[in-house]
Amino acid sequence: MFKTIALASALVLSASVSAMAADAVYEVPAAPVAVDAPAFTWAGAYAGVQGGAGWLDGTFGLAGVGSATQDFDGGIVGGFVGYNWQFSNGFVAGIEGDLDYNFNEESALGTDIGTDWSGSVRGRVGYAFDRALVYGAAGWTATNGYVKNSALGIDENEVFNGWTVGAGVDFAVTDNMFLRGEYRYNDFGDKDIVPGLNVDLDQSVVKVGLGVKF
């Protein structure tokens, strides 16, 4: 009798363990589905700061006398804002504006000559190699030229308008921050800054920048 009870108990225990094992296998959670991280995009608004060096050449023509040239080289510091559209084939188009201050004043015979602020509005076209954006840009540019001589009572300013063209590389170090390197050529045109003195200005610029993409 004891053997019969023991055998029945063993059968019941075995069935219970088998049922629990079956339930354990059945309740194993499914493996998580891999989700691809979203691809980086240059689309959207951005803003940043920039600085570098400019090599400004001035040609001065004095009516009835002749002409002479002078270099106005110096540092540049400023900022930029813009907006990009990125297409599925990797091409990027955008528009950008910037405003800089030039430190390029030259003095001779008590007369100070130079340019202070400059700015531009440019269209940009480029190609994105993931986090690297190679681009070319062109558009309108302007700068404020001045001549000052306190002894002669001269304090004249003229805004020169012209065109700009250049190229550069933006590289995203994070999803929202990028570094920039750029070369630009500015042709500011010519004007009579004082009666009889015509001034023609053009400039080569190298800049580096730090931007934030929103």
From TrEMBL:
<dbReference type="InterPro" id="IPR027385">
    <property type="entry name" value="Beta-barrel_OMP"/>
</dbReference>
<feature type="signal peptide">
    <location>
        <begin position="1"/>
        <end position="21"/>
    </location>
</feature>
<feature type="domain" description="Outer membrane protein beta-barrel">
    <location>
        <begin position="11"/>
        <end position="214"/>
    </location>
</feature>
<dbReference type="Pfam" id="PF13505">
    <property type="entry name" value="OMP_b-brl"/>
</dbReference>
<dbReference type="GO" id="GO:0009279">
    <property type="term" value="C:cell outer membrane"/>
</dbReference>
<keyword id="KW-0998">Cell outer membrane</keyword>
<comment type="similarity">
    <text>Belongs to the Omp25/RopB family.</text>
</comment>
<dbReference type="InterPro" id="IPR011250">
    <property type="entry name" value="OMP/PagP_B-barrel"/>
</dbReference>
<protein>
    <submittedName>
        <fullName>Outer membrane beta-barrel protein</fullName>
    </submittedName>
</protein>
<keyword id="KW-0732">Signal</keyword>
<dbReference type="InterPro" id="IPR051692">
    <property type="entry name" value="OMP-like"/>
</dbReference>
<keyword id="KW-0472">Membrane</keyword>
